[in-house]
Amino acid sequence: MRTIIEPFRVKVVEPIRMTTREQREQIIRDAEFNLFRIHADDVLIDLLTDSGTGAMSSLQWAGVMRGDESYAGARSWFALEAAVRKLSGFPHILPTHQGRASERILFELIGGPNRVVPNNSHFDTTRANVEHSGAAAIDLLIPEGRDPRSRHPFKGNMDVAALERLITDVGGERIPAVFVTITNNSGGGQPVSLENLRAVRRVCDKHGLPMFLDACRFAENAYFIQQREPGQRERSVREIAREIFDMADGATISAKKDGLVNIGGLLLLRSDALAQRADELLILTEGFLTYGGLAGRDLEAMAQGFEEVVDEDYLRYRVRSVEYVGERLLAAGVQIVEPPGGHAVYIDAAAFCPHIPPEQYPGQALVVGLYRQAGIRACEIGSVMFGGAGKRPPMELVRLAIPRRVYTQSHMDYVVEAVTELFAMRGELRGLEIVSEPAALRHFTARFREV
Ligand code: F0G
Fold first, then answer.
1. Whose CA is nearest to atom 2 of ligand 1?
2. pLDDT (tens digit, 9 = 90+) per residue, 115-137?
3. Is residue 6 part of a domain?
4. pTM of the predicted model as reported, rounded to 2 decimal places
5. 192: Cβ contacts below 8 Å, ≥ 6 apart
């Protein structure tokens, strides 16, 4: 089989800058060992997130110039509405400035004290928004999803039996919606199968509960279904995505992922009554219904992004390039969450640094080591992000998130070489302790010191 190439050529380039090891040592100390606190110019390859970091196409940039900045009823809004309606079929499409804005509006309406929101795995902002409303956020991932070595093809699946038990235990009236995150970001970017989504839908129907999607990476999830699920090979990704949306009563979407834009989000709703209340909140805090906190040019770029993301040449390259990094790391002996996810490779930091206990944040130690070693910025998804107050996440992970259409294969080779070098010297990695932290979402601003 031939190499799967980037299905695009480069029209604009953006220089990236190498730093010396001495410079990086000073930078990481000045940032108190938190990579969110450093200057992005001091990063060579930035794998902090795949969110809002993608490259737009020539057609999207053309859309930026076409953007209609009218306050109400802008042409660009109707372009976005048409693209999202074609993709999802949803009757109510609300634009927001990003995913968490959709979450905040939704959970202000359906959350609240004494409520319980199940999800395969809440992402950090989703959990924070559920909890901010006073509700409890419960993760119900299948056990394979918590085992880095399991090669289950759909490790993002919800544990349907556990969902049934939760509904019996707490009572359906306390559950405003059952959420499914596609793909499952916190659990390794792993997909959810159609079969599992249908099973969740059946449980929701049985108990009269709405089913919602956190659909940030719906196209990558649909591509995995096409490739891995029996009987799906002949269907288009667009068709599969439509079936997924058709099953749901609503969705929150950050367009900064599969919308292929740098900013933007959506709240999709089926219920007229809920949509009316959401419209009111949207106007109160985001903006009028036809722009939702975005510029007309952003809407135009999003409309085009939602067309391009279901292109199967793009998705083949996208998923393959992430898989390539994962395969090479595994071959070098680095344990990752297997199989590689759709948008990122997740290194098992507990296995990488067995000499660092969870209380000393092995993931953070690895993130710091990778920056020192090679100027690469990655993101801890473990006890820093989800720990604190006696809580302990199921895995200590470091995410190498791959921005969309940004880096080439040689950049990825460099990343693999750097991680492999660090793996050979892993005994030198040092644990950290937290010096100060905020009340919520502490990974963004916490300060550390090496122990
Ligand atoms: N849901 C999931 C599954 C996400 O991955 C994110 C963002 C959000 C919701 C919130 O969207 O950032 O537009 O407000 N994830 C980014 C990441 C930040 O790095 O994984 P947002």
1. 123
2. 999 999 999 899 999 999 999 99
3. no
4. 0.96
5. 120, 154, 156, 157, 158, 180, 181, 182, 183, 184, 221
